[in-house]
Amino acid sequence: MSEIGREPGLCGSAILADGSLVIPDTLTDPVARSNGLVTGPMAVRFYAAARSSRTTGTGWALST
What we know:
Blueprint: H1 11-16, E1 20-23, H2 36-39, E2 47-50
Antiparallel strand pairs: 1-2
């Protein structure tokens, strides 16, 4: 998988974070543990992302 939308993914939290976001164990993270990527067939157990330096003209981050 090369892309996933912001809402079903975990990247929404990374976009809002300052700097990088690391979740060592998604099963114990209060936000990630109920995410479909964690509970579903992909069974994501570790997640790391950093907000892209690319932003819109009004300062919104475009991606992780």
